[in-house]
Amino acid sequence: MSNIKAFAARLDEAARTAKATPQIDPESVMSLEQAYQIQAANIAHRVERGEKLVGVKMGFTSRAKMIQMGIDDVIWGRLTSDMRVEEGTTLKLSDYVHPRVEPEIAFLLKAPLAGDVSASEALAAVEAVAPALEIIDSRYKDFKFSLPDVIADNASSSGFVIGNWHAPDTDLSNLGMAMSFNGKVQHVGSSAAILGNPVRALVAAARLAAEAGIPLQAGSIVMAGAATAAEWLLPDTYVRLDIQNLGSIGFHVQE
Ligand code: OOG
Ligand code: MG
């Protein structure tokens, strides 16, 4: 359907130029299948420009995020090489529409993982786990969207920061997490907020990515979804995340 291409091009353009665009389906009449087709076509523009697919991100895997955004379905999006933000980098707010940041956990795979897998099968494919921050930047005006809207917009994915990798036998079931701005704690939570255990987000990612025809590979990164609500990025801020047993990461934000 040509609408799919047109919506995809509009969302890609909004992301590239950091200018908000109107919602594409405010009444939520589109099927989720169509929304994911738009997402695929949207990210295909990036791949055509030379970006590589490096993994997937999960969204709305915690109650805190579902409540903040008013959506209670788990969704996923594609991660590309250019979305990676190095630890300690300084971001410029003008490169984004209205960015937010949220505390996550990332997985790195050492083996392919596709279809219906158990939590222990999923863990057996994990090379390492790390503390991670996701920068989300809805391309829609006022950061408002329906479920099809946010899926089409690649689940608001804009950037991801990953800290030091740790052995995959680290128990992820209940790790304390604190996100601070200039040393002041903004949100505290537990990794248990992510579907009871972030490994469940990896199980879901394996199934959803395979269903979409892009099965997770050795080397894929999976972002498990935020444990707490997201926070608006502000100028002159050092954003830091501390996770029990996984260490800390951060980045700077400028006007
Ligand atoms: C959608 C993305 C949700 C998460 O970690 O739950 C997400 C949004 O909140 O804009 O990335
Ligand atoms: Mg997220």
The chain-level structural class is: alpha+beta
Overall morphology:
globular
Give the name of the CATH architecture: Alpha-Beta Complex
Low-confidence stretches: none
Short description:
With 255 residues, the protein is an alpha+beta fold. Helix content is 26%, strand content 30%. 2-oxoadipic acid is lined by residues 57, 59-61, 65, 69, 102, 134, 136, 138, 150, 155-156, 225-226.
Please give a structural write-up.
The protein is of the alpha+beta class and 255 residues long. A hairpin with a 3-residue loop joins strand 11 and strand 12. Helix 1 packs across helix 2. It has a single domain, classed as Alpha-Beta Complex (Fumarylacetoacetate hydrolase, domain 2). It has six helices and twelve strands. The strands form two sheets. Strands 1, 2, 4, 5, 6, 9 and 10 form a seven-stranded mixed sheet that branches. The protein has a five-stranded mixed sheet with strand order 3-12-11-7-8, with no helix packed on it.
Secondary structure elements and their pairing?
Elements: H1 2-17, H2 32-48, E1 53-59, H3 63-69, E2 75-80, E3 90-92, E4 100-109, H4 119-124, E5 126-136, H5 147-152, E6 157-162, E7 176-181, E8 184-190, H6 198-211, E9 221-223, E10 231-232, E11 237-243, E12 247-254
Parallel strand pairs: 1-9, 3-12
Antiparallel strand pairs: 1-2, 4-5, 4-9, 4-10, 5-6, 7-8, 7-11, 11-12
Helix pairs in contact: 1-2
The structure holds 2-oxoadipic acid and magnesium ion (MG).
